[in-house]
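Q: Sequence in, structure out?
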Amino acid sequence: MNVIVFGYSSLCVGYSSLTNFYASVCAGYLSVSGGYAISFGFYASLCQVYGSVNAGNSCLYKKYSSLTNFYVSIG
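A: Exactly. Output:
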């Protein structure tokens, strides 16, 4: 299994446009993941919510950046 580490904190510090884009990718990735849908279900919801919050207030988003760091295992 390959492990991919998403360091979301470094992306959301000053690039709100990237975090908004990532929210869309996260939602799409949930569909692509197929068998991993159960694992990603809860995170996908967080990604969409925090992506929306960051669109209006990047400073607020920083407070939640630690919650958006995660590990995805793919094989």
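Residues 1-5, 7-21, 27-41, 53-75 have pLDDT under 50 and may be disordered.
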